[in-house]
């Protein structure tokens, strides 16, 4: 076994989050430190992709702030993620939905998956 895998296994922080995929609308509760204070900021948007595996896995969330799209990459194993809530399950046919960047208005909507 390589030395990197041993170190990753030792340093791993196991977080239990719900299963989500690209196209889902989620709210990430992220801890922010400002000076000596700590608060939780909510970041709600559509999951664009999940990439990586194991300790180095990340996911990209895109939200609209006014008329500007803002994307943020979160590491899954980050100790600053308090919790993740799934708001809607989206019906998409791809694992990476970067085509959403070019769409505006009603075209940018994602159909909701019914259970």
* Count of DSSP H/I helices: 1
Q: Helix- and strand-based class? A: mainly beta
Give the N-terminus to C-terminus distance in angstroms: 42 Å
Alpha carbon gyration radius: 16 Å
Shape: globular
The secondary-structure element order is HEEEEE
How many DSSP E strands? 5
Low-confidence stretches: none
Query: What is the CATH topology of the domain at 22-99?
Result: SH3 type barrels
Detailed description of the structure:
By secondary structure, this protein is mainly β. The chain has a domain at 22-99: SH3 type barrels (Roll). The protein has one helix and five strands; from the N terminus they run H-E-E-E-E-E. The chain has one helix at 3-11, and strands at 25-34, 37-51, 58-65, 68-75, 81-88. It has a five-stranded antiparallel β-sheet, with no helix packed on it. The radius of gyration is 16 Å and the shape is globular. The mean pLDDT is 90.
Layout of helices and strands:
Blueprint: H1 3-11, E1 25-34, E2 37-51, E3 58-65, E4 68-75, E5 81-88
Antiparallel strand pairs: 1-2, 1-5, 2-3, 3-4
């Amino acid at each position: 076994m390589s030395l990197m895998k041993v170190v990753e296994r030792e340093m791993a922080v196991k977080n239990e989050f719900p299963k989500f995929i690209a196209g889902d609308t989620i709210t990430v509760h992220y801890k922010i430190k400002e000076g000596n204070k700590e608060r939780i900021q909510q970041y709600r948007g559509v999951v664009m992709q999940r990439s990586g595996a194991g300790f180095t896995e990340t996911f990209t969330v895109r939200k609209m702030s006014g008329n500007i799209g803002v994307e943020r990459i979160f590491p899954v194993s980050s100790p600053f993620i308090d919790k993740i809530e799934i708001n809607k399950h989206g019906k998409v046919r791809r694992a990476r939905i970067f085509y959403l960047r070019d769409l505006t208005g009603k075209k940018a909507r994602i159909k909701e998956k019914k259970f």
